[in-house]
Design a protein that fits this description.
mainly beta; Cathepsin D, subunit A, domain 1; twelve-stranded mixed β-sheet; globular
């Protein structure tokens, strides 16, 4: 989900949220080939979303959603209360829905995924219970994590791997597109064509916390437009529009008859990205794409 922070005290740089720099060190139990991942685990698919088993400060395992649309990692307020994590300065955050919700600064916490441990220096604490997910998330792993490691997501096998950016070797058969990191917000350019001959490159947020295909206002110019309930994240849902793009280009790959909503924030979500093994090399500004067996599956219409 995509978010923006509005703090009541002090200055914030920003899961549903567009807003922690994750500073930490990977810990591996044994020495290993530097070309291999620091850690690789299976993840839990929830719809099109990615849930990871996370231990916060060494406590019991919790399920966090991998959400590149959140600039900083987030801990659900109930989980923070249960684990004794102090709640700090309050503020407001803008999510995928209308309006703002309350959020708090938290103290630095250790996040452990498998053998990989890092420190979230500035986690946010937010009540995630209103978010309409099939499985409630205890937190979000945000863009701060992508800035620390090269992250490879095999959406077909439901595997995720984390590499040291200094020794990572690019996949030999992958296409690549530029990946921009602007203030903990990740962007790529996709070619969106609402009608034949009317296409243009559009700068979209990369949002692994969204199950949408692409969200952009240009869909209002398509030949087929209908009303759709939008939001489905933090904040209130609202009635908006969706339509059918004549085509969408993602690097060398072209998709036809693409349903997409006119969301509040232009994004590319997991309905589009699940068609690839994705390798996010944020430190070097590259997103690698390797198509899988889902590449040519039709893109469904958004729910009413």
């Amino acid at each position: 989900m995509s978010f923006e922070w509005h703090m009541s005290i002090g200055r914030a740089t920003g899961i549903f949220l567009l807003g922690c720099v994750c500073n930490g060190a990977a810990e591996a139990s044994n020495r290993h080939d530097p070309s291999l991942p620091l850690e690789e685990i299976s993840y839990r698919p929830v719809g099109k979303l990615i849930y990871l088993p996370v231990r916060v400060n060494g406590r019991s395992r919790r399920w966090f959603c991998l959400d590149s649309g959140a600039p900083e990692s987030i801990i659900d307020q109930a989980a923070a209360d249960h684990d004794g994590i102090a709640i700090g300065i309050p503020g407001m955050i803008q999510g995928a829905g209308k309006g703002s919700v309350q959020a708090f600064f938290g103290p630095p916490v250790r996040l452990r995924i498998g053998k990989l441990t890092t420190t979230a220096e500035h986690p946010r604490i937010v009540d995630l219970s209103p978010v309409p997910l099939a499985v409630r998330a205890d937190g979000l792993i945000g863009a701060d994590f992508f800035e620390k490691y090269v992250v490879r997501i095999d959406t077909d096998r439901h595997r995720i791997a984390f590499f040291d950016p200094r020794t990572f070797q690019r996949p030999s058969n992958a296409a690549s597109i530029p990946l921009e990191d602007a203030n903990h917000r990740l962007f790529v350019e996709l070619y969106l064509e609402p009608r034949p001959g009317s296409g243009a490159l559009r700068r979209l947020r990369v949002d692994t916390g969204s199950e949408d295909s692409v969200d952009d206002d240009t869909v209002k110019n398509s030949a087929t437009v209908k009303t759709t309930r939008l939001g489905n994240g933090l904040g209130s849902s609202y009635v908006g529009f969706s339509g059918i793009y004549s085509s969408v280009g993602m690097g060398p790959y072209k998709f036809s008859h693409v349903w997409g909503p006119a969301g509040a924030v232009p994004i590319v979500g997991m309905e589009m990205m699940r068609r690839f093994t994705l390798t996010f090399d944020v430190p070097n500004g590259v997103l690698y794409l390797e198509p899988n067996r889902h590449l040519n599956e039709p893109i469904p219409a958004p729910p009413r």
